[in-house]
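Figure S4 source data
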Amino acid sequence: MEKRLNPHLVASPRSAIREFARLAAETPGCISLTLGEPDFPTPPAVSLAAKESLDRGETHYIPNNGAAALLSDIAAFEQKTHGLSYDPDEIIVTVGATEGLFTALMGILEPGDEVIVPTPAFVLYQCIVGLAGGVFVPVDTAPADFQLTEDMLARAVSPRTKAIVLSSPNNPTGCVLNRESLAAVAALAESYNLFVICDEVYRQLFYGTDCPQFSTLYPDLKDRVVVIQSFSKPYAMTGWRVGYLMADRPVKRQLEKLHQYDVVSTVSFVQEACRAALREDPTPMVETYRRRRDFALARLSEMGLSVVKPEGAFYIFPDISPSGLSSGDFCRRMIAEAGVAAVPGFCFGGEGHIRLSYCCDDAVLAAGLDRLSAFVDKLKGEGSWNF
């Protein structure tokens, strides 16, 4: 009966990120720098709010788009923190950012529609585009230090292009799209009448002085923008599975049908927990990530690995192409021979790189980078390194 399943589903690969995390877990003593999950506990006030909601018996159906109080709080938070003007009825509380992305792309795409995605990029985008019957059009940003140019976009666009997906700060590079990149996207979106899906789940995990966002810079394009957010990363709530989608009212009212038929709503008793999360300050966590980022950058530089400085998220994406190994072979050998795990760049459309996550204890990060350094030295000693 497998042959009668949806061919788009059958063609979708399983997550290679999880595969390498599994290999690490199955290797005794291996240090895993693979998964992008905060190593901080969920703030106590958030957990308490959920418990109190349970104690009040708030375990029944809620409105499809989320509790009214949470929707109002999100609208106020986005206005105050990011300068975004969305009414509560332009917001859908989703089962993580994943459901938000799924809802947006499934709602926008028709079979054969093309979606431009700057790569390296999170693996989920390509899978959802494929499930929707769309065509994934990658734009390699590595030659421009993970930025976009008008020429890049001009070569990627076609009459079949329907949308472009932006992720900034980016997973896996940690890089932030600059204003010139975003201006190029705006010009393209207007010229070709494109949707712009802004995956902003790492927006609050930013270390630089300027974190421009398409949604903020181009409010006049609100009618074509869908913003995806998550509680997972800034509030260490990955297991709670809550995010939200924001879109212009006519678009949102159509997308909410998909949300309704897919999940009905998010969980009732986490609504108050999310309200509590919006009152939390992620700055101490961000400062810890900043310190770890700086440490990782320094260590990779000492190893002689080239890397574009990440300005957000909690990933770093060094270039391992001088090793002469594919990113997959590099990571497999690193696990087996050095006892440290990373995610190969091919998973994100970034062959020749590996993704290291620094959301782990300082001592674990230091030990993992020591093992990576020893592995690099071993490869250099074998004479396979292209200096």
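Figure S5 source data
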Amino acid sequence: MKTTRLRGRPTLFDVAKQAGVGSATVDRVLNERSNVSEDVSKRVLQAARDLGLRRMLPHSHRRMIRLDVVLARPELPLIGRLGYEFRRLSSALDRSIIIHRTILDDERPETLARALTKTTCDAVVSYMPDHPVVHAAVEDLSSRGVPLVTVVSDVPGSTRIGYAGIDHIKAGRSAGYFITRMGREPGKIVILCNSLGFQSHSDRISGFTRYLEEKAPQWTLACIVEGGDDRNRSELELRQAFKAFPQAVAIYNVGAANIGVARAIRADILLQRPIFVGHELTRKTAAFLREGIMSLTIDQSPELQVRAAVSLVMRHFEALGFDGVSFPLDAEVPFILYGPENLPNTLPF
């Protein structure tokens, strides 16, 4: 297309003349109205750029993005909340992005890797353990031009395009801070997690233990229990830990099995009721806080993680309408600390 150089500020008429269309067509393209072919839209937008039209231009080709949200174990409160927030956001998005959900019964690396390999969508959002099989599946996605954004738990060192979630080191350090200040005197602490294979859980534990070493060395770690985020298994494992360390004065649950923790505490195996700090705000944890069996919960704002993850995907495809925009590979989401006095009036889960 031959560009006509203008001395003054270009107008819509100038753009129309340059593109070889009518002014009404230019108006429809710039205001993203219907009934304009893709070819004509591209010509109009190119003419507007060439002439230096001073206004925000829509993206020249807004493709439809099919986003596959892969979530394992939807019975877990956090994963249920993530699914709920993705459904809510899906209804608010325009037709340029379609959210599909793939639900998995377990979170084994092989299961997640198979789901990633099978996807036919344009992009994926998921959480997963940090495992070589998962890294290979992420690499396969990348080789096919399918971007992956992680939420909840990251796979650092992989070819995913970004992580949208909280800083788990900071969350663990915060738990250490509050436990050591709520305790009447130093003592032993029991930690419960799903598995150290999840980056989120290993980072929380790392942040927690580092805080003790740096700021409260008189407090000691009794043991780390891996309960698989299963309430029954976690209760049994904790009962055994409490019998081995009856003098323990606190428990930090970095995972989802808060119900199992409450049951184990109510068994009164320990010499005194412990400080109990956990994660996620749910109807159950809110009840535990009001009852006094739980001292504090650290919520990782799943609604913000969902929005940040979708934003990263859209920006990857330049779907926001800003050509050449730069964006962070990681979108750190703030976490919120809840005690019995600042609970919301209603909770969906």
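The first strand starts at residue 65 and ends at 72. The chain has three domains: 1-61, 65-165+302-333, 168-299.
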